[in-house]
Design a protein that fits this description.
147 residues, mainly alpha, 0% strand
Amino acid sequence: MNYHYLVATGLGVGKLPVMPGTFGSILGTLAFLLMPTDSFLIKMIILVIILIAGAFSSFKIENVTGNKDNQIIVIDEIAGVWLTLSIIPSGTWFPLAGLLLFRLFDIWKPYPIRKLERVKYGYGVMLDDILAGFYAGAVILILNMVI
């Protein structure tokens, strides 16, 4: 196995026969929750690293498989849920709500998420999930202010 395969598939999670995107999101959630720091800056630095490595590796996997945004690529779900969890409050139910809302927006792809998929060189794979992650986080922040 090579570096790009391991990165793009979330250490192989993307090869699971059912719901690889959901399991990639769960992996991202667990990695986020196991971070030994609460520093927003460090979490954003990690997100940028995930985005750059994810876009490059996704592009390589797309070229090898011939499939744009191949189902085995889950690094985008990891990045998207990471963003959601970075911007919402910590607490008992927030991570679960973040995970569920992220998956909702990632699957539903409201405007303009689907348009971002067209961006080239692996960045479209990553950016649509980043926007889904932002939407999920924004909904939770708004609901948290209202309730």
